Amino acid sequence: MGQDVFEITVNCIKLVLIFLMMVQAVPILVWVERRGSAFIQNRFGPNRVGPLGLLQLLADAVKFLTKEDFAPDKAIRPLFYAAPIFALIPATLAFAAIPMSVPLEIGGYVFKIQGYDMNVGIVYILGVSSLAAYTILMAGWGSASKFSLLGALRASAQVISYELALGLSIVGIILLFGTFNLTEMINAQQGTLSFKAFGHTVTSAYIPNWGIFYQPLAAIIFFAATFAESNRLPFDLAEGEAEIVAGFHTEYGGFKMLMFFIGEYGHMMLGSALMIIFFFGGYGIPWVTVDDVRQWAAGLSESATTISVITTLVHFLSFMIKFVFFLWVFIWVRWTLPRFRYDQLMDLGWKTMLPWALGNTILTALVIYLIS
Amino acid sequence: MAEASGMPLGGVIFLTVFLAIFGTFLIYLARAIGGQRKDNSAVKRDIYECGIPGQEKRETKVSVKFYLTAILFILFDIEIIFMYPWAITFRDFIASGQGTFVFTSMMIFLAIFIFGLFWEIKSKALEWD
From the CA of B15, how many Å to the nearest CA of chain A? Predict the structure, then answer.
């Protein structure tokens, strides 16, 4: 019984920490986005408040907090206020299932660097993250403004359209790894490239054993669909400010607005993390397996705990480097590509990405069937 | 080892409840600190509509295309979800020698899927004007 209570407490604290980590990352990402966009557009960006403008984050938080809380007369208040709260939930719930490093072992106790380990990881993440469409619809309908409603309808139609291409591109991944479990996927991508074909084993010492070398097309489709799912440019038709003011959050301001931002950036983080896990070896270090790292750590120290700590830290660092890189790609693309027109967006989703993802699935199944 | 960090369902429920409470707390905090300004006229409390008094009702008519997209999405999404169990067991079936049967039956299903998709494109169900 004492063991159970300890277990539950540790897990709850871990979940809260994961959420706080996500919330902490949002102002930093906003800062990177503003400085990055300024860098790309050849201007300064925020550079007055503190060194490099870093304290701008604090100034923004104070500004958001001291704004008057406002709801229009015609708004449906329960929906209007519930929408920003629900905006936090889907991305965080999904992100907690992401394995961020090798489990830590302290004196026989295994501590996973992951909110909860599920055998149906992918299905769970897909299911939970698509609940974001409800948030947008609640905000749009609750605001009672026609701009909000139009933005919400556009956004939800877009999210569900790209969900198809996203789901289909993952079928190729599942065929490749034969599992729904994210940790097992990462374990399958350790070391250098090697696979079995016609009874022989093909190896290469120069290429890491990453998913992208088996599924390049799925990687492109998945990454593009992730942009659409998180409502980022070039797919941010939900808030095309030239046409519908600010889309579903036209009537929102202050802290409620900030909570939508946390949701959006949460989806960005989820997209980067999934991209890493499916195609770039997760927390694994390229060309090297987890056992190699453990042996290297064993050369540094005698105690099993220290070895475990070093292994976990090294892999966490590897995860974070890849993670930050993909977050930067998200920001980079936003300030490089122009926005689509709505019919172009739907055409791309239904008539281009869906057939290509289908073709990829058939091809993958065919190759797996033929070579084994 | 698999059980060491188990309780996924409990974790999900805990996190959902925690986030709901935390979010509500944030909104109340912002409300308490932000306060209310003295100016509280009807114009200010109106919804935004480019500077004129609000014209539209909430029950605006919207394009039927959105409903059509939603219906098509449900059809295709179920078809895609149906492929997941097949994808995960495909290698096992090949290993047990039933690969040809499983492969051809899924290809027949996919042919119907592709036929449906192209029929949809052909019938202009996905055209936006």
Answer: 7
Q: Could you tell me if A157 lies within 8 Å of chain B, comparing CB atoms?
A: yes
Q: What is the pLDDT of residues A40-73, one digit of tens each?
A: 888 888 888 878 878 888 888 888 888 887 778 7
Mark yes or no for CB contact B48/A116 under 8 Å.
no
Distance from the B51 Cα atom to the nearest Cα atom in chain A, whole angstroms: 12
Alpha carbon distance A158, A348 (integer Å): 11
Range of the domain at B81: 8-122
**How are beta strands A200-208 and A104-106 bridged, if at all?**
unpaired
Measured between CB atoms, which of B15, B24, B46 is closest to A15? B15
Give the closest of B20, B48, B128 to A346, CB-based: B128
- Examine residue B18 and state whether it is found in any structural domain, yes or no: yes
Domain boundaries, chain A: 1-66, 67-371
| Euclidean distance between CA atoms A75 and A82, whole angstroms | 12
A79 touches chain B (CB under 8 A): no
> From CA A249, how far away is CA A139, in angstroms rounded?
7
A52 touches chain B (CB under 8 A): no
List Cβ<8 Å contacts ≥24 apart for B72-76: B72/B120, B72/B125, B72/B126, B73/A160, B73/A161, B73/A163, B73/A164, B75/B116, B76/A164, B76/A354, B76/B113, B76/B117
Nearest chain B CA: its distance from A219 CA (Å):
17
Domain count, chain B: 1
Residue with tokens 């591109």: A169
Q: Is position B3 within any domain?
A: no
Most A CBs within 10 A among B83, B86, B122, hence the mutation to make, goes to B83
Cβ atoms of A131 and A236 within 8 Å: the answer is no
In a domain, B92, yes or no: yes
Identify which of A88, A118, A160 has the shortest CB distance to residue B70.
A160
* ipTM exceeding cut-off 0.90 for this assembly: no
Contacts of B67 (CB under 8 A, 6+ apart): none
How many residue pairs bridge chain A and chain B with CB atoms within 8 Å of each other?
Answer: 216
Q: Could you tell me if residue B84 is inside a domain?
A: yes
Residue B2: pLDDT band by 50, 70, 90 thresholds? very low
| A61 in reach of chain B (CB within 8 A) | no
The pLDDT tens digits for A72-81 are: 877 788 888 8
Query: Can you list the alpha helix ranges (DSSP code H) found in chain B?
Result: 8-34, 42-45, 65-95, 99-122
Give the residues across from A106 on adjacent strands: A109
Using CB atoms and an 8 Å cut-off, which of residues 266-295 of chain A contact chain B? Answer: none
**CATH number of the domain encompassing residue B63:** 1.20.58.1610
Per-residue pLDDT reduced to its tens digit, A334-368 = 888 888 888 888 888 888 898 999 999 999 988 88
